[in-house]
Design a protein that fits this description.
The chain is an all-alpha fold. The protein is built from seven helices and no strands. It holds the Pfam family CDP-OH_P_transf.
Amino acid sequence: MFDARLRPLIDRPLNAVARTLSGTGITPNVITGFGFFLGLLAAGALILQLDYVALGLILASRIMDGLDGAVARHAAPRSRHPGAKSQESDLGGYYDIVADFLFYSGIVLAFAIGRPEHALMAAFLIFCFVGTGSSFLAYAIVAAKQDRNHDKQGKKSFYYLTGITEGSETIFVLCLMCAFPKWFPQIAVIFGALCLMTTFGRVLQARRDFG
C-alpha cells in the first residue's frame, strides 16, 4: 500500500550508494545473498530471543534487498546476452523473489521456535503469507504472458500487483514484532487478516483483468 509512495524517498540514497559500488566489482547477486544471510542471522537472533539484535539485522537485510536492484541498474553489464546495458537480469530477479519470501516466512518461523507459545499464531501468519505470495506471483505470471508491466514500485523484473500488505508494511510489522514480542499474537492476527484481505482483493483483480 505504501511501497509506491516510499519508493521515491528510498531510491535516492540507494542510487547514490549504488553508483559508488558500481565500479567495485560487487555484483547484485552477491548483495542479494548477503542480505539473505543477514536475514538468517536475524532469524537466529530471534530464536535466542535477542529481539533488538534481530531488529537491526532485519533492517540491514532489507537495505541490502533494496540495494541489489539499484546496483544492478547502475553497474556495467556482465550479461552473456548481447545488448545488455546493466546487470539487471531475470536470474537476479528470481534470486531476489526467492530470498524475499524465504526471509519473510523464516522470521515468523523463528518466532515460533524461540517462543513456542506463539507457534499457532506464527503458523496462521505463514498461511496468510502464502496467500499474498501466491496471488502476487500467479498474477505476475499471467501478466507477463499478456505483456503487462508498470514501474510504480520501481523498475521490477515482473509485474508488481499492489495490495494492502506489501513489502513496506511487512517489514514494519516484523520490526514491530521484534520491538514488542509479547504482542506477537495480536500483531499476527491483525496483519494476517490484512494479508487475507489483500489476497482476496488480488483474486478479484485477476478476475477483472483476466476473466
